Amino acid sequence: xxxxxxxxFRRPSRRGVGVLLILSVGVTAALVAGRTAAAVAGQxxxxxxxxxxxxxxxxxxPIVREHCAGCHQPAVKQGELTLTTYEGFMDGGAKGKVxxxxxxxxxxxxxxxxxxxxxxxxxxxxxxxxxxxxLFRGWIRDGAKDDTPAEGRSIVEPGKPVAYHxxxxxxxxxxxxxxxxxxxxxxxxxxxxxxxxxxxxxxxPGISDKITSLAFSADGSVLAAVGGTPATFGExxxxxxxxxxxxxxxxLTADTLFGASFSPDGAKLAFGGTDNxxxxxxxxxxxxxxxVKQHDGWVFATAFSQDGSQIVSVSRDGAxxxxxxxxxxxxxxxxxxxxxxxxxxxQPKRDIVLVGGEEGVPRLYMMHRPRSLVIGDTSxxxxxxxxxDGPVVSVAFSPGGQWVAVGGSTDEVRVYKTDTGERVxxxxxxxxxxxxxxxxxxxxxxxxxxxxxxxRIYDVKAGRLAKAFLPVPLEKETAVxxx
Length: 483
Fold this sequence. Notes:
By secondary structure, this protein is mainly β. The chain has helices spanning 17-21, 56-67, 86-91, 108-114, 130-141, 150-153; strands spanning 173-175, 181-185, 189-194, 200-205, 210-216, 222-229, 233-240, 245-253, 257-262, 268-273, 278-282, 288-292, 299-304, 310-315, 320-324, 330-333, 341-346, 352-357, 363-366, 381-384, 392-397, 403-408, 413-417, 423-427, 434-439, 445-450, 455-459, 464-469.
C-alpha cells in the first residue's frame, strides 16, 4: 500500500461554493489480451525510427487512466488485467503478457488497440486515435520502461487503499435504507461505516480522485458513487452493497460528475456534469437512456419525482429545471433565477423540492405548477427559509418530510420545520463548511460532514451532538479536537 502525504490533499475554500464543487472523477473501458503475432504484422509501419522517446508517466499513463482504468482496476480487473499500475501492466492478464518490450508488433496490447483482434479496445468506446496508438508503439519499441519520478510514486495509485496522514475533505454522505450503513466519501474510495459511527466495516477503492455524491437504491442493494478526476474524466461507480463488489464503472464525460439520485424503483440513476448535461442511466445495464443539455451551466444536483417520470435539476445557471425522463422533454423552470444553485432534495412523500446555492436562501418549490405559466409567476414557490450566513451547499429532508436541514460554507447546520419555516435546531462546531447532510432512516438523527474531515451525528429531537468520529484510518495517531 502506497502512502499518501498530507500535501497530496487539497482543501477547498471555506466559503467558495464554485471552488468546492470543482472536484472530479472518472472511468472508462479498456484493454484486454489475446491474439496471434501474425494478426498485427505490419501495424508498426507508421512508427518513425527516429521518433522521440515516449514517457510512460507523461504520455502513456494519462491515456490509460482516462480510457482503460475503468475496466482494468483492482475492483473490476476484467480479463484479469490491472492497468492502474505499471506493475500490473507488465504482469499481464488471463491471456498472458500484453506487452513484449522492444516488439510492438508482437504485443497483444497493440492488436487490441488497433482492432486486429476483437473486441477492439477500449471496449464499447471510441477507439484511440492513430497518434495515441503510435505513442504505445513507441513506448514498447523503446523497452516499455517506467520513468515515473520518485515524487510521483508517493501518490497512491487508483484502486489501492489509501494511507491517510490527514483527514480528507468530505463531500458526500449516504445512509442505507435500513440505517445500518453510513457511506462516506474518501480520497479515491468510499468508506462504509456502521450507521451510527460505531465502526468502519469496509473500504471500497476506486479510480476517481473525488467522490462528489453518494446514493443508495431504495432496497439498499446498490450504492452509487459519482465523481471523477477534474479535466480528465467523470465516473459512475455502482457497488453491490452486500458483496462489497464493484458491479460497474462508467466513464461518460471528460470532467467531474455531480448530484446522483436513484429513481424510486431503483432502475435508473440520474446525475449532472460540467458538460451542462442531465444524464440518466439504467442501473442494471449501465446504458445511458438520457443525456440532454437543458442548462447553460454545470449541473450540480438532480431529484426524481415520486413516480420517477420527471427530474428536477439545478445548475450554476441559477435554474431549477423540470424535465421528462422519457424523451428528455423540457417542461419548464420551476423557479425564478436568483443566483447559482448547487443542491436539491425532494420531500420523500410529496413532489416538492428544496433548493439552495450561492444566494444563501433555501427555497421550497412545487414540482408541478398549480396554474398556467405567466410572466413573473411565482406560483410554484411555497416558502423561503431564513437567509444563511453564506452560500448553501447541501440540503436534506427528514424521512417523514417534516424537517429540512441546511448546510453550507459556514460552520453551522440549521434544521427547520418544513411546513412553517420555523428553526427548530442549530448545530455548531464544524471547523469550516458543511458540504453534506443526510438524515438517518429513524428520522431522529442526522449526519453532517465537510471541510474538517469529521463526521458528526446529531440527535435532532434532543438538539445535541450524539457522535463525532474520523471516518478514515490515519497512518499516525492525530490529536483531533471535537467540538
